[in-house]
Amino acid sequence: MPVDPALLCAELIRFDTSNYGEGKSNGEHAAADYLLNHLTEAGYDAVLLGPEETRSSVVVRVQGTDPTLPGLLVHAHLDVVPAEPEQWSMDPFAGTIADGYIYGRGAADMKDMAAMTLATLLNWAEEGIRPRRDIVVAFVADEEDKGDYGALWLAAEHPGLFAGVEAAIGESGGHATLLEAADGSTVRLYPVAAGERGTLHLRVRAEGISGHGSRPVPVNAVSNLIEAVSRVDNYSWPLVLTPVVRRYIAESTAALGYAADLDSEAGVEASIDAMGEAGTVARVTVRCSATPTVLRAGYKVNVIPGVAEADIDIRCLPGTEEETLATVRQLLGPEVTTSFLSHQPPVQSPVDSPWFSAMRDALLRHDPDAVVVPMCMGGGTDAKAFAPLGISCYGFAPLATDPEGRTIQGVHGVDERVPVAAVRGGQLILQDFLTSV
Q1: Which of 292, 102, 311, 305 is closest to 204 using CA atoms?
Q2: How far apart are CA 248 and CA 263, in angstroms?
Q3: Residue 274, by phi and psi: left (phi above 0), alpha (psi -120 to 50) or beta?
Q4: What is the CA 419 to chain-centroid distance, rounded?
Q5: How confident is the prediction for the chain on average, in pLDDT?
Q6: C-alpha–C-alpha distance, residues 39 and 31, integer Å
Q7: Number of Cβ within a 10 Å radius of residue 428
């Protein structure tokens, strides 16, 4: 009897794998050990490894029937962002199934994908099925921070685990956004990520003369920092249409019955407006961004600090990294110094590839009316760790459309949940894709 991915998802939620950032975490080891035991009992030669015992990942290679075919990586992260239980209507780590939903922190980000992947492997083992090509599965730690204890560490310290892998699928993409077309009909748009903006986290430091608060100094670190960061924050980034974003807007608007004008800024904005909910992603991927997020200075109101620091979250589109950094440094000016907290370049993978076609075909087999389009993600995933290994990375964690209209809710927020039917149907899509690709 097939394994129920909804029950596996609920069980994974019950492991509190909260990642607080800056190396502080409840750890992924218990969840990783749970997965390892399931895989080992099913006969797989899985390995558990990590830079620290509490920060564990699990990797397994399923041998394909045709060793001449390039391999495929499937990755899903085990850590989750913290939850504030007092704001939730239920225990965020109880893994409650109710009202057609699986509730809990990580339900949709992304223990659903981990559960669907595990269910697929267990079904294969039960039925004696082997995929056509090698499938490498990585359940990884630390995606919700910088990946130093997870994907980045695996790629740097154990690249051999991914030998022969040509493409990868991971989070974000492969589930429907329901949109109203110009004629009033409903369009089920399935974006599949073929790109990500780069993650360039910058620390800015201003140094000045410390002293008594009642006696102004000629070089004030706080003032210089505020002025520098303000220039960055108020900068209007120019419109940039990368190939993936251009196709996302053009193909989405065409499916909705609108003609996109992508030759002017006003036309692009109007096209994004016409996309409805699907325009949310488009709006943050037609420009780079630089957002100040953290400020540090001083320890007492009557003491002028000699040092002030700020952290800036910079996201750059594919092909714009050098220009983006040059612009930020010019805006900051000579009064401050900079250093990287995280430097992960943007990701861009081919849309006109057999891999993308196989994802589209799998979705169409389960939803013949699906409109599958490529997109660029505004944020980032573990794809940034695997892409430098020469792997084409895609965001494809498929979910079926809930027949009663339930949708994912509360990601990184309160009462996070994913429809049970979406997970069960998504597992069938994923298994279909991995078996046939």
Answers
A1: 311
A2: 15
A3: alpha
A4: 20
A5: 97
A6: 13
A7: 20
Q: According to the model, what pLDDT value does residue 338 have? A: 97
> What is the structure's pLDDT at 403?
94
Alpha-carbon gap, residue 166 to 178, rounded angstroms: 32
Give whole-number Cα distances, 170 to 125, 129, 213, 398, 424, in Å.
22, 22, 52, 10, 18
If 0-12 CB within 10 Å is exposed, 13-18 middle and 19+ buried, where does residue 186 land? exposed
Nearest Cα to Cα of residue 311 among 377, 228, 210: 228
The answer to whether the CB of 44 falls within 8 A of the CB of 129 is: no
Terminal CA-CA length for the chain? 24
Phi, psi of 50 (to 5 degrees): 180, 165
**Cα–Cα distance, 307 to 221 (Å, whole number):** 6
Of the CA atoms within 13 Å of residue 224, those in its CB half-sphere come to 22
Which residues of the chain have a pLDDT value below 70?
A: none
Q: Return the pLDDT at 160.
A: 97
Res 22: pLDDT: 86
Closest CA to 32 of 3, 5, 52, 55: 55
- In degrees and rounded to multiples of 5, residue 73 shows phi and psi of -100, 135
| pLDDT tens profile 72-114 | 999 999 999 999 999 999 999 999 999 999 999 999 999 999 9
DSSP for residue 175? B
Q: Residues 185-215: pLDDT tens digits?
A: 999 999 999 999 999 999 999 999 999 999 9
C-alpha–C-alpha distance, residues 7 and 36, integer Å: 17
